[in-house]
Specification:
- With 350 residues, this protein is α/β, with parallel strands linked by helices.
- It folds into 3 domains: 62 residues, OB fold (Dihydrolipoamide Acetyltransferase, E2P) (Beta Barrel); 162 residues, Rossmann fold, CATH 3.40.50; 67 residues, no CATH class.
- The chain contains 8 helices and 15 strands.
- A 6-stranded mixed beta sheet has the order 10-9-8-13-15-14. Strands 1-2-3-5-4 form a 5-stranded mixed β-barrel. Strands 6-7 form a two-stranded antiparallel sheet.
- The longest helix is centred in the C-terminal third of the chain and has 16 residues.
- It is globular, with a radius of gyration of 27 Å.
């Protein structure tokens, strides 16, 4: 039966080749086989400062659209395409983030589910803390130690302003945790810092990230280590005891004579640890992790935890002479106490 005039049926419609939207979408992405490797030295409002190629020439880049949900941070190694000459006015494109060897994270507080990546691929965390002006905040130090151990990084505690206070008490608190402790002091002018040789030796050949709250002398230390860094320095408020934040973004700086890299970060007032699991923290204490295998299921390993094997381990050293080192009760007690202190730092306020 003929169709009625002015009406159409399905047979009247034909797909038009090349019609927009007619081709099926694909999830295949370009291989970018010609991509070069770049090292991210800084991030500023959606633009990324990179060092690219064997000569490590500076390049400015943006993220490709496929990476819009992935955060590129200081220390990342990335694959970059486009104009990688570094000429003025040019803009390359980051198309891949290479696998990270470590990721230092923090959250805004202990209930915040969103992790903030501070730096990638760092070998060690250097916690910069003043011995006075402002007073050291041990809970903040503990939290930084926890974050570093969770990330699988080595930890260094750099105590500044030793001309104002004795570093011995803090050294005694953190060396049992396996933390390397370095000490610096201001010179007669109050602006310089030293001695620097032990610090340079500890940083040599590594990618180190410096963290500390405002006013502890972190920027002063960076300027001494990298004379052309020109990081702004601030002062400590005599009323609040807090420093003024001078670094506004993380930046990677090369140490002289190919001695490694340091990442200077903005001063922090809080260091949330919502992302840290107890077992990850325990894993940083290999001797205690071995002992804790005998703990009952669900043991928190905290002070007062019922039938915790850590307490039995300490008690078992009671008959060992104090000068016997790791086998003595004194050593074991300090070790367990130190672990439980940083364990408690996961939920303590700073």
């Amino acid at each position: 039966m003929a169709a009625r005039a002015g009406t159409r049926d399905e047979a009247d419609f034909r797909d038009r080749p090349g019609k927009r939207g007619s081709r099926p979408r694909t999830k295949r992405r370009p291989d970018h086989e010609d991509a070069q490797t770049g090292f991210v030295t800084g991030v500023d409002r959606g633009r990324y400062a990179l060092l690219v190629g064997p000569d490590r020439h500076p390049v400015v880049a943006m993220k490709a659209s496929e990476l819009r949900r992935d955060r590129v941070v200081c220390g990342d190694r990335v694959d970059v395409v486009g104009n990688v000459t570094g000429d003025e006015g040019t803009l390359a494109r980051i198309v891949r983030i290479q696998e990270r060897t470590s990721v230092l994270r923090r959250t805004a507080d202990d209930t915040d589910p969103f992790e903030r990546i501070i730096v990638a691929n760092a070998d060690q965390l250097v916690i910069v803390t003043a011995l006075a002006e402002p007073e050291p905040r041990t809970r903040m130090i503990d939290r930084c130690v926890v974050a570093a151990y969770d990330a699988g990084m080595r930890v260094v505690l750099c105590l500044t302003k030793a001309d104002l206070a004795d570093p011995a008490p803090l050294r005694a608190m953190y060396e049992p945790l396996g933390v390397d402790v370095l000490v610096t002091r201001r010179d007669g002018s109050g602006d310089g810092v030293g001695p620097l040789d032990p610090v340079r030796e500890r940083l040599h050949g590594a990618l180190s990230v410096l963290v500390g709250h405002s006013g502890v002398g972190k920027s002063t230390l960076v300027n001494a280590l990298v004379p052309d860094a020109l990081r702004a320095t601030g002062h400590v408020n005599a009323v609040t005891g807090r420093g003024r934040q001078t670094s506004t973004s993380a930046v990677a700086l090369p140490l002289p004579d190919d001695g490694g890299w340091i990442v200077d970060t903005p001063g922090v007032r809080s260091f949330g640890l919502a992302h840290v699991e107890v077992e990850h923290l325990l894993g940083a204490f290999e001797d205690l992790a071995e002992v804790a295998r005998d703990c009952p299921r669900g043991c928190t390993h905290a002070d007062g935890a019922p039938d915790c094997a850590l307490d039995d381990w300490v008690a078992a050293g009671a008959d060992v002479p104090a000068d016997a080192g790791p086998a003595s009760r004194e050593f074991r007690a300090v070790r367990v106490e130190s672990f439980r202190r940083v364990l408690g730092a996961r939920t303590a306020t700073v």
